[in-house]
Amino acid sequence: MSIQNKQTVLVIDDEPLNIKVLSQALSPWYRVKAATSGADGIRVAASDDPPDLILLDIAMPGMDGYEVCDQLKSNHATKQIPVIFITARNSTEDEAAGLERGAVDYITKPFSLPIVMARIRNQLLLKIKTDMLEQLVSIDSLTEVANRRRFDEMLDQEWRRSVRNESPLSIIMIDVDYFKALNDSFGHAAGDICLKQIALALKNSLRRSSDTLARYGGEEFAAILPNISHADAMKLAEQMRVNVEAQAIIHPRSPLGPHVTVSLGLTTAQPKMHESPAQLLVQADEMLYQAKQEGRNRIKGANLAANS
Q1: Top CATH class, 148-307
Q2: Beta 220-226 vs 169-176: how paired, if at all?
Q3: Among 219, 220, 238, 286, which one carries the catalytic annotation?
Q4: CB under 8 Å to 222, separation ≥6 — which residues?
Q5: pLDDT for position 143
Q6: What 8-state DSSP symbol labels residue 169?
Q7: Ramachandran bin of 47, using left for φ above 0, alpha for ψ from -120 to 50, beta for the remaining angles
Q8: Residue 43 C-beta-side C-alpha neighbours within 13 Å
Q9: Which of 66, 134, 178, 236 has its CA 20 to 30 A from that of 7?
Q10: Every domain of the chain and the residues it spans
């Protein structure tokens, strides 16, 4: 297994020797990250490359393990990362306190490495299954792109990332032109096939793994484009429009021509802490409305980042 495909374990412990022992045992099987303070551990956990599991000591200077766990579980970006306490505190009360804070396991020192490895392996296997289930409930069953639930989650995540990095964020709202007329002509089964083809064309227009395409509802799609200029987002939106039209999906009742087309509304903003991503959605939807009012099969865009 390549290191890129390995799961990541973060060890948070103020004792370098403990980190060394665990790292040596784990590194043949997992990527290992280390932090010698609670604050550093929280920073690593909340980074753009979060761990799959955290091994956390309790007795640390400054911020102890309980407080670290509390902060991890209260942060949307880190609350789903499983935490195992590894500590010299061996009382029933300490173990209960750790598990009540949301830890998935509690291991006391001195520990047996084979037992620690087995418990880590079990938790990481469980996480793989949980992630697979999460992915299943995040995918639109018809088009196999992200669903509305996943879109909302990703928009919130990318908004917060853009605030943190002071980078622009773009949203594209996409609507299939005269889709009801297509359904009326050929039936819903043909309409479903059309939506699948359009979703594939839109998805193939994206070139970055950070971009997200979702079925927003009915015949409407939406794309989240983090850290992209308004000009480049407009180019991408035009590529989407062209790629859909190039599918040459027959539409006998479209006043725009013989094939299915889409209208797109785009907004680019510079997210601010005190603002909401809902504002970006509203503006992108307004741009889509204008594109449809002006004749459809076109793009309307607004660059709010230029005014911030």
Answers
A1: alpha beta
A2: antiparallel
A3: 219
A4: 151, 171, 172, 173, 174, 213, 214, 216, 284
A5: 96
A6: E
A7: beta
A8: 7
A9: 66
A10: 8-136, 148-307
